[in-house]
């Protein structure tokens, strides 16, 4: 037997999702910001270098004394910022204390005697170069390594990490609070469901939270109402069945005691034996119906479907019920087509349905009123069992096939059956691919109509 894995709570999952979203958002924003800041800082450095080059160029307009430019006060200030000065000799050779800076200046166009701003790479290192011309053959360049922007980038990364930590902390708190708020209605629903499992039917879930959570609460409340209604119906059904069982059992027990005690002798004993046999058959039929109804929805309940002539089946059934109806002074009429009507059904189960409907009709039909077995064909075969009894109220027809409903309503007012016959008949007809409906009959009572598709 496998142990079910422990599931994480909704609050934990929401917190993790919030953390993931916050982390991704901060990282993506940091990467974009780093790229923008890196580009912007390089532009700022380039502009600052250009401004300093312009200042130097203005000081030596028209001539470029090499010694003065290399050792002047402005030069010292520039070099103090990590900027190299590269001069061009009259012979075109660059003069610089840093060979890499000299190569960078030449690569940037120092020898072309024209002002320009360049970003060049020498030996894998990037340099910012500002070239200025102060006269014929008098050119200099300011060269600054681009790594000066690394400090800004490192500060940015540090700030991004700080923001990431703060964002994750806020996301964790927000996710935890949000998870608790969203899961609270679900916890209430779970508590109510646990109470329902323990037999409580008076518990209800508060309708709160988002629409989806409120829908879950509404469904659980509707389920609780349905369970309470179903269990009430089940109790009523069991009460009606127990009543139906108790009546024949009482008769069997009473007459059996009379025979055993010698109270019933001779003709009385024979009548007692007939009563015991009749009530035992009634009990057997009731138990059989209960078993059939219980098995009806199970996979092992099998039907022997075959082609049959519905006219012949109705005629045979009428022969049996005509005698029983005559004994009650009830006229049985049979209306069938003059030709065979072929359907696919289980003959035994279909006969059971017709017998059950006819028995119900005879139970409520007064002397002198008719019972009609009417078979019609209109693309389908329709067999109606109609009676001239008191009929049903309009609101009873939709629930006529629910177990015990009619028994509960009419018990004590008119003869009723066990409360399972119509439910069983409806289940059998449905399993055979047909329908069973109820409605008023032209004869004044009720009509129960079995509809089956015609055989091809």
Automatic annotation (TrEMBL):
Keyword Cell membrane (UniProt): yes
Domain HAMP, residue spans: 180-232
Name by which UniProt lists this protein: histidine kinase
Membrane topology: Multi-pass membrane protein
Transmembrane segments annotated in the record for this chain: 12-37, 160-182
Keyword match Membrane: yes
Keywords of this entry: ATP-binding, Cell membrane, Kinase, Membrane, Nucleotide-binding, Phosphoprotein, Transferase, Transmembrane, Transmembrane helix, Two-component regulatory system
Extent of the signal sequence: none
Species of provenance: Amycolatopsis xylanica
Main location: membrane
CDD domains: HAMP, HisKA
Single annotated GO MF: ATP binding
EC number(s) per entry: 2.7.13.3
Alphabetized Pfam families for the sequence: HAMP (PF00672), HATPase_c (PF02518), HisKA (PF00512)
Catalysed reactions listed for this entry: ATP + protein L-histidine = ADP + protein N-phospho-L-histidine
Span of domain Histidine kinase: 240-456
Gene3D superfamilies linked to this entry: 1.10.287.130, 6.10.340.10, Histidine kinase-like ATPase, C-terminal domain (3.30.565.10)
Localization in the cell: Cell membrane
Superkingdom of this protein's organism: Bacteria
UniProt GO cellular component terms: plasma membrane
């Amino acid at each position: 037997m496998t142990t079910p894995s422990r599931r994480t709570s909704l609050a934990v999952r929401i917190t993790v999702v919030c953390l993931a979203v916050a982390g991704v958002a901060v990282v993506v924003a940091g990467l974009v910001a780093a790229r923008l800041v890196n580009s912007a800082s390089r532009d700022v450095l380039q502009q600052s270098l250009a401004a300093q080059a312009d200042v130097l160029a203005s000081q030596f307009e028209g001539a470029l004394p090499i010694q003065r430019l290399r050792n002047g006060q402005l030069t010292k200030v520039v070099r103090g910022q990590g900027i190299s000065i590269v001069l061009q000799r009259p012979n075109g050779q660059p003069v610089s204390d840093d060979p890499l800076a000299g190569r960078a200046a030449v690569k940037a166009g120092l020898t072309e005697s024209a002002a320009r701003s360049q970003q060049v790479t020498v030996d894998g290192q990037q340099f910012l170069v500002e070239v200025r011309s102060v006269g014929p053959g008098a050119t200099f360049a300011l060269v600054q390594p681009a790594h000066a922007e690394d400090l800004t980038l490192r500060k940015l990364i540090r700030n991004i990490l700080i923001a990431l930590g703060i964002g994750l902390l806020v996301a964790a708190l927000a996710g935890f609070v949000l998870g608790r708020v969203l899961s609270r209605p679900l916890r209430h629903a779970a508590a109510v469901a646990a109470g329902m499992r323990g037999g409580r039917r008076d518990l209800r879930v508060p309708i709160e939270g988002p629409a989806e959570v409120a829908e879950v609460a509404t469904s659980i409340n509707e389920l609780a109402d349905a369970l309470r209604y179903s269990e009430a119906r089940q109790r009523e059904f069991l009460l009606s069945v127990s009543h139906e069982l108790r009546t024949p059992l009482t008769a069997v027990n009473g007459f059996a005691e009379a025979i055993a005690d010698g109270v019933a002798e001779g003709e009385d004993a024979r009548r007692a034996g007939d009563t015991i046999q009749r009530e035992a058959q009634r009990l057997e039929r009731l138990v059989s119906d209960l078993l059939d109804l219980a098995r009806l929805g199970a996979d092992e309940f099998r039907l022997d479907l075959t082609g049959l002539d519905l006219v012949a089946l109705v005629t045979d059934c009428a022969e049996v019920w005509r005698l029983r109806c005559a004994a009650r002074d009830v006229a049985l009429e049979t209306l069938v087509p003059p030709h065979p009507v072929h359907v696919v059904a289980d003959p035994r189960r279909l006969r059971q349905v017709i017998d059950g409907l006819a028995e119900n009709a005879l139970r409520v039909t007064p002397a002198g009123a008719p019972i009609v077995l009417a078979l019609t064909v209109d693309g389908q075969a329709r067999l109606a069992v109609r009676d001239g009894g008191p009929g049903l109220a309009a609101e009873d027809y939709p629930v006529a096939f629910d177990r015990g409903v009619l028994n509960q309503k009419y018990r004590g007012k008119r003869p009723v059956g066990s409360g399972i016959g119509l439910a069983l008949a409806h289940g059998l007809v449905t399993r055979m691919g047909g329908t069973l409906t109820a409605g008023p009959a032209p004869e004044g009572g009720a009509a129960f109509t079995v509809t089956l598709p015609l055989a091809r």
